[in-house]
Specification:
Layout lengths: L12 E5 L3 H17 L3 E5 L10 H4 L9 E4 L5 E4 L1 H12 L12 H30 L5 H21 L16 H11 L12 H11 L2 H6 L16 H20 L8
Parallel strand pairs: 1-2
Antiparallel strand pairs: 1-3, 3-4
Helix pairs in contact: 1-3, 1-6, 4-5, 4-6, 5-9
């Protein structure tokens, strides 16, 4: 794939994204809208390892220099950035039958906003920091590892309790698949990066399996490429050995600082 240097579409939605938990929010919803309404979109892979998202043409679209971002060429070339803002915009404008969202006067609209805000301000940032201190940081700092892995566990405990008697996060009865679920999918699928096993949270695991059954979810996770791993698939070989090695470091850090799991 050629290195992107600017927008390439003149109509429809143009998605600028990469294979990250936040990036998958936009691609999964766009695939759902495509399947339900025939909404077409164009996508470009923005390799964040090459800092394409920092180039002037991209920061003209998203001043923060982050993916994902979309440009709606059918609506005055409106640029929308931040994954959760994209979910809100696309569902408000293109989910006309409220298949994946809720009417503004429905209390579940507010409930969905609350859970999406919880993901955006809590689960995503904490899990991202856990992954950074456990996997990416050259120096393995015990306090940082136990702090962020522990907070990620706490948040997953909240989500597990929410899903104990529900199929989806928001909606009447046992819930309705919606943007509240889509906001979480990429992050939950990447949970193993923190060394936390999804087996610790059986209701979350059942929810993720349920969501993965949707064809649009499977397709959305392919844009621009599939995730390197999934919380639902066992690791093998050197990858599994590395995760176990890191988990032992995290467990040692937890013991050092007296961490005891508690949620909420």
């Amino acid at each position: 794939m050629a290195r992107p240097t600017g927008l390439i579409a003149s109509k429809g939605i143009e998605l600028l994204t990469w294979s990250t938990p936040n990036g998958y929010k936009a691609s999964i919803l766009l695939e759902e809208l495509k399947e339900a309404y025939g909404l077409q979109y164009t996508s470009q892979g923005i390799n964040i390892g090459q800092n394409i998202q920092k180039e002037p043409w991209f920061t003209a679209i998203n001043p923060n220099g982050r993916i994902p971002a979309i440009v709606d060429h059918d609506h005055g070339d409106l640029a929308v950035f931040e994954g959760n803002a994209i979910l809100s915009y696309l569902s408000r404008r293109y989910d006309t039958e409220k298949l994946f969202s809720f009417a503004a006067d429905d209390d579940d609209y507010t409930r969905a906003e609350s859970w999406i805000g919880w993901q955006h301000g809590g689960l995503g940032p904490m899990q991202g920091q856990a992954n950074h201190f456990v996997r990416a940081a050259k120096e393995k700092i015990p306090y940082g590892m136990q702090r962020y892995v522990g907070e990620t566990e706490r948040l997953y405990g909240i989500l597990d309790a929410r899903l104990k008697d529900r199929d989806y996060v928001v909606g009447p009865g046992r819930g309705k698949y919606s943007i509240a679920d889509i906001a979480l999918l990429g992050w939950v699928n990447a949970l193993r990066g923190t060394t936390i096993s999804i087996e610790q949270f059986p209701s979350v695991k059942a929810w993720l399996e349920r969501c993965w059954e949707r064809p649009a979810v499977q397709k959305g996770f392919q844009v621009p490429s599939a995730p390197s791993s999934s919380a639902l698939k066992p690791q093998v070989g050197e990858v599994a050995e590395k995760t176990q090695e890191l988990k032992e470091l995290v467990d040692k850090a937890k013991k050092q600082y007296g961490y005891v799991y508690s949620s909420p």
